[in-house]
Amino acid sequence: MAEYNRVSECVGLITLRNPPVNALSAAVRQGIVDTVQRALSDPNVKSVVICGQNGIFCGGADIKEFGSNMTGPPLIPMIHAIESANKPVVAAIEGSALGGGLELALGCHYRIAHSKARLGLPEVSLGLLPAAGGSQRLPRLIGVPAALNLITTGRHVTAAEALQLGIVDQVTDHNTVAAAVKFALSVAGRSLDPRRISTHPCPQQPDLDALFEEVMQKVRQSARGAIAPIACVQAVRAAATLPYAQGMERERELMATLFTSGQARALQYCFFAERAVGRWRMPSGARWDTSKPRPVHKAAVIGLGTMGRGITVALAQTGLSVIAVETQEKQLMEAKQAISGMLERGAKRRGVAPALDGVIYSQNIQAVADVDLVIEAVFEDIALKTKVFQQLSAVCKPGTLLCTNTSALDVDQLASETPNPELVVGMHFFAPAHVMKLLEVVYGPRSSPQAVATAMQLGKKMGKASVAVGNCRGFVGNRMLKPYIEEAFFLLEEGATPELVDQALEEFGFPMGVFRMSDLSGLDVGWRVRKGDGLVEPGTASGRSARIRQGRRYSPLGDLLCEEGHFGQKTGRGWYQYDKPGSRVARFDPWLHSFLGAYRAQHGLVARRIDHQEVLERCLYALINEGFHILDDGIAAGPEDIDVIYVSGYGWPRHRGGPMFYANMVGLAKVLERLEHYQQLHPEVPHLQPSSLLRRLVASGSPPIHKWGEAIKKLHSQL
Ligand SMILES: C[C@H](O)[C@H](C)C(=O)SCCNC(=O)CCNC(=O)[C@H](O)C(C)(C)COP(=O)([O-])OP(=O)([O-])OC[C@H]1O[C@@H](n2cnc3c(N)ncnc32)[C@H](O)[C@@H]1OP(=O)([O-])[O-]
User: Fold this and answer.
1) 142-151 pLDDT, tens digit each
2) Is residue 313 within 6 Å of ligand 1 at its C-beta?
3) Does the pLDDT value for residue 538 go beyond 70?
4) Which ligand 1 atom sits closest to the C-alpha of 255?
5) Mean pLDDT of 462-471
6) Which of 550, 502, 501, 558 lies closest to 529, judged by CA?
7) C-alpha of residue 196 to centroid of ligand 1, in Å
8) 287 secondary structure, DSSP code
9) What is the mean pLDDT of residues 495-519?
10) Radius of gyration (Cα) for the chain, nearest Å?
């Protein structure tokens, strides 16, 4: 819907009305066509202003319409009608002008933006490209290099940067619509030809071929198999080399290849999934819209190791005052320096003042007596964490939320160490905590909905993708990672190499394969956990029995490397070798390969040829299968929760939607059939045993992923 008013006697004011972001739905497009026509044919109107209601210009095309037959007037002629108008049209940009919203503004003759506005063409993040003339008009307006950067990254720019780039003509701190109306009055009657961007030639660029070659190479590397960024480069190239009409034809062709692609569906699924996880619900029935969060004005972090420092920075960057506690004086001083440095660098990147005064450092846990929420981040040891929780229960004011950053310990066991277990939740950050987007908010059976609501709200305030999950070993992310890693170890036993496994996973789109990731995080981390689970046995026993522990197949390969002191990058040797401890470039390690050969011989294993297909099926389907167990256990409320966790915290390629979305794309029946195939070959591997939920979903006709929630409820009610 678009509303029309005449203001200041001779300015036609068109207001887009489609809450919450004035997306260009069919009705809005029709409204724009009608109101523009009205303004242009009204003799009293000398110029036109287009704005959006509720302080937001336009969030672009209506993504919700992409899955259905598009109706209503198309965008391109609608924008062309504005550009070719004989009266000046001014866009008054508040909030956001993104995608089709910015393309609409680029069709206008002038653009006035509020200083807090954000502008961009983020279509690439939805697996698309700017297909309403944006890929042809923006390069003509701001030049090829700047346009290439905005369109291939999809990044949003501030109004200040948009002015500097030449996207907008004026920036105001005051009422944008009023400023635009005043501006529109001032340009009435002026010649508009110089303002019709599509008629401009693209600014000449020396050595165009070299520029596009270089950008295409960079884009291919960072895309890791995503197709939209490449199409974006090709579309801008058309703008730089073809007349506008031909360029628009090229834009249309390229968009046609993307619009129905699996990758576009995956990326749009991620867009909505990231918004859906904010609408959390617990098995108890408690939900996001019925649970009121407690206000958090002051927070505290206990333990300033690597995680504690990152968490302190993430909290301080929200403007909260933070008490940072570390009992060891030397550790406290080092932490203070590190945290200040991170805050200064972060502030510089964001162009704001560093919140150094917002953090108070103390060696004394008494200092947290009046905070609203505490995050404990001490060493991953249950006895130490229990002691801290007992101290906090004694020190903190009534009602203070006690959160633990544990990545594997039992949140409910810690809760039972306090007089108010309802105030205890897990807040599982990922290293580096001030950078990684993901936050698992872990509720135990006694955690109150208010505690969950408060942690989720604080997560959103820190800019995290916060996902509420139930308490269980490894929560969601690490629980699914276990079978994924174990399968990779088994593949090595059977003849694969770290290089082969990693290559298959990196070609799939992961930034790092499982073995390069293991070298980065340190082999000793997993070794410590396996020791804690009583799985590690000393000595070099051989034969099948040495590879069966706690009644299931077990590969001691990682343990044996650790016994050699090969912890990965930190020791200069792990699954790969490195020039020196701490260096990051993984190189082929002949020692490791002969060690694998000797290991197989010792255990009577005969290496066989393993291809990428098998690597992907065994590693990814084992992980996905655990995802179905998690859904069946109610630990995750829906597939979106699992997919957001993996995309924002475990490097699952976004253009593949997430593990559960991927399973849906591959076909649940196929995943089931392959799991059954491998389970028959490896009966001693329980995690290959297909989840009963997967079986039941297949038996009920493999409903589409957006129907899984309902299907799971129905299937549970039949149990
Ligand atoms: C031809 C053309 O070339 C092409 C092809 C295109 O134009 S493709 C489209 C390109 N446009 C984009 O990529 C911009 C996408 N949107 C955003 O980046 C953000 O939304 C925002 C604008 C910066 C606001 O952030 P927010 O934090 O204030 O609110 P929110 O929670 O994100 O969003 C609030 C609610 O609005 C919904 N929503 C947001 N943008 C939408 C859109 N473009 N279409 C449909 N729904 C949208 C969203 O799902 C949520 O719904 P619900 O969860 O409440 O039910």
Assistant:
1) 999 999 999 9
2) no
3) no
4) 5
5) 98
6) 558
7) 28
8) B
9) 97
10) 28
The sign of the torsion formed by the CA atoms of 56, 59, 64, 65 equals: positive
Known catalytic residue at 274: no
Instruction: Look at residue 328 and give its three-state secondary structure.
Output: coil
Measure the CA–CA gap between 715 and 709, rounded to whole angstroms.
10
**Cβ(640) to ligand 1 under 6 A?**
no
pLDDT given at position 630:
97
Which has more confidence, 460 or 206?
Answer: 460
Our answer on whether the CB atom of 98 is closer than 6 Å to any ligand 1 atom is yes
Instruction: Kindly give the distance from the C-alpha atom of residue 112 to the centroid of ligand 1, in angstroms, as a whole number.
Output: 21
- Taking CA atoms, 99 is separated from 2, 329, 643, 658, in Å, by 18, 51, 25, 24
The residues, any chain, with a CB within 8 Å of residue 189's CB and separated by 6 or more, are 46
Q: How confident is the model at residue 67 (pLDDT cuts 50, 70, 90)?
A: confident
Residue 352 confidence (pLDDT):
85
326 among known catalytic residues: no
**Catalytic hit among 83, 94, 103, 626:** 103
- Checking DSSP bridges between strand 298-302 and strand 424-429, what pairing results, if any? unpaired
CA distance 389 to 402: 8
CB count within 10 Å of CB 138 equals 26
- Token representation of residue 335: 């932490």
- Matching residue, tokens 């399968």: 487
The active-site residue, picked from 123, 493, 617, 626, is 123
The model's pTM: 0.96
